[in-house]
Amino acid sequence: MYLFKLDRMPDLLSMVIFHELAREGVEALIIVSPEKPMISVGYFQDVFQEINLDYLKKTGLPLFRREVGGGTTYLDENQIFYQVIYSPQNRKLPQTIKQAYEVLSQPPLRAHERFGIKARFREVNDLVTEGGKKIGGEGGANIGQCLVFVGSMLMDFDYYTMSRVAKIPDEKWRDKVFKSLEENLTTMKRESGELPDRREVQDVLIEEFRKVLGPLEKAELAPDFLRRAKELERKMQSPDFLYGKRKKEVGSLKIKSGLNLIFGQHKAQGGLIRTIQEVNGPPEGGMIQDLSISGDFTLIPKESLKEGLEISILGSRREKYELLPRIAKFMDSRDKEMPGVTTEDILLALGLKE
Amino acid sequence: MEVGGYLLPDDLWYHKEHFWVKLDGDVATVGVTDFFQKLAGEISYLELPSEDDEYTADDVIGTVETGKWVGKIYCPISGTITEVNSEVLDNPAIVSLDPYGKGWLFKLKASDLSELEKLFKGESALKWQEEEIRKKAK
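^ inputs. structure came back:
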């Protein structure tokens, strides 16, 4: 297996390399960081629904759609990315998704430990500290004829920029996104008190991967290969691939495994209703543990928004049949007026279909 | 029949990438096996082919995403897509709940039924599934 220790690469190219190597069937470990900040979205994400494209335009942050799943991620040089590419015929390496996570999560976990940070793998695809904070994310895919396993070590993280990137229906909720990220996501710098040396992190990570992957032969990217990778980059930057409509219909931001912020909005006859929900568990069926509703609808008295409607929803599973009677009870109460808004409208604003 | 805790109905043909085929005349219904859905985990998104698209056996014709993985959907035999299950596109969890029933993925009009000979059925399916469990699920 080859080792491509690339250090810093031009932003998009840093993430294109593993896609091209996998397409060409090259078994390799790649260690890389993007030279400049960039945004990466999962294969199935709806960019228009989930990304604050105005912010990206204003700041010049490039957007990339990876062929790996998951949600929106902010990438920069303070994150060390590892990508393992191997053939399914390679019997020395994991043959199933479950095994891949079990085996290939070990090198980054041991690397963290060598920097004094005890971490473990937590379902579905996070590396978390003893305190339960996410310190790395992982993912996998079949690309070309290869299996690809990817992840990152967060030396440091720009919480502010990440909190700006998600598209949310109401700007006043940006702080909520920022706080949730800061509370649930940590970094090597935060855990150990200082920014580790990137060369050292790379070397330790490679050393740990060598124990699992076996001998690694150092390799360079040939000019011909780079030409093909740039060609692939052009394809992956095509509007069809980058902006093509995917299936997601409700905006969301995964903070860590099992904790999602979900944004919804719906235009009712009585006005626009926007919601932000903090959901503990899966987006469908998880518990709504925090919620804010806003918009230009009329509700009298206005206190009944927080004390009535929001309370009726809090603590419920995000599931139509559990929410329906709770919301209906509030909507049917006679001590409030909410003209032009029905129970069904609230459900739609929560992102739950009719 | 059940093999090592995975359902494997006797009357279906099986493709090596864990897709099943059920034949009605020359129309094949295609879905994923119980083994596939259990190893993949909960399916969150599916990308399926469009009606009237033509494919050859073993072509990659779609994508499946679980919390852990983005994988490929293969065409088990050659033919033209006649119907796509819109219900699983709206609610991919159905695939995990009922992989051999409501969780079917697409139907195609087979162009060469002799290709079924390359798939596993009956005794050969049993052996193949046992080998896959030994390699991937132990």
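The mean pLDDT of chain A is 92. The interface with chain B takes residues 42-44, 67-69, 95-99, 101, 123-125, 139-142, 246-248, 257, 282, 284 of chain A (CB under 8 Å).
thumbs up if we can close this ticket
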